Amino acid sequence: MSKLIVKPVHHSDQDTKLLSITPESAGWTYVGFEVHRLAAGQSLRCATGELEVCLVLLSGKANVTTAQCAWQNIGQRMSVFEKIPPYSVYVPNGDEYEIVALTDVEVAICSAPGNGNHSARLIAPGQVGVETRGYGNIERQIHNILPEQEPADSLLVVEVFTPNGHWSSYPPHKHDRNALPDESLLEETYYFKVQPEQGFAIQRVYTDDRSLDETLIVQDGQAVLVPRGYHPVSAPPGYDVYYLNVMAGPARAWKFHNDPDHAWIMSKSLAK
C-alpha cells in the first residue's frame, strides 16, 4: 500500500483513537491530525501545548470545555452525509480541552503550530461558509470551517462533499511552493468517508516532473497525505465521497496553482 495512505488503527473500548498523523509520522513540519470515536459517556482530555487545534464534530453531540470556556450539547448531525455544517471548536496553544460525549461521537482533531494570538471559540454551523463549487460532474459542496479569513495562526480546515460520479479538488491544483502571492506552501491531509461504506474514492498525487506520481484507492475511514504536487479526487458511480482537509504551512494563505495541462477547464466553468 502507498505510504501516502494512512489506515485506521485498532480501536478498543478503552482507546478512542481511530487514526493519527503527526508531523514526525508524515515526514513534514506543520500538520497534525487525529480522529477519535467516543461512546456516549466517554471523555477525551488533552493539553494543546505548542499547537493550536480545531475540533470538528464529524458526528454526534458532546460537551466541550477549555480552560476558560464551556459549550454544552453541541453537535447536530449524526452522519457527515447529512451534508449540514458541523459544530467545531478552535482551541489555541497553551490551552486544554475536554470532550464529553453525549451520544456516540466521532471527532477530528486538526492541529498546527500556534502563536497564542487567538482565544478559544465555538464555530457554529451558521458561521461555516457553504458554497457550491464547479459545474457538471466537477460540482461539489464546500463547508469552509476555518478559512484564511477567520482567525487562526496556522490552520486551514474545510470539508468537501463529492457526489457519486463527480470529481473534486479539480482541475488538479497544487500548493507546494513558498512563492506568494502566486502560490503558498501548504501541507495537507485528506480524511475520507464513503457512502455506502464498502465503496472507495480515487485520488491521484503527482508532480510536474513525475518524481511523485501515485494513483490511490482510498477506503472509508482512511486518510491521504499530500506533501506536494497536484491531488484530484474522484467519486466512483454509486458512492458519495466526503473528505475533511487540514492545511498548514509557513504562511496562512491558500494560493494554488492549477496543472497547466488542465487549467482550460476553469475557463469553461467561468463561461457558464
TrEMBL record:
Its EC number is 5.3.1.30. The keyword Isomerase applies. Keywords: Isomerase. Coiled coil: none annotated. It is an enzyme of class 5 (isomerase). One of its GO terms (molecular function) is 5-deoxy-D-glucuronate isomerase activity. It comes from the Bacteria. GO terms for biological process: inositol catabolic process. This is 5-deoxy-glucuronate isomerase. The lineage of its organism: Bacteria, Bacillati, Bacillota, Bacilli, Bacillales.
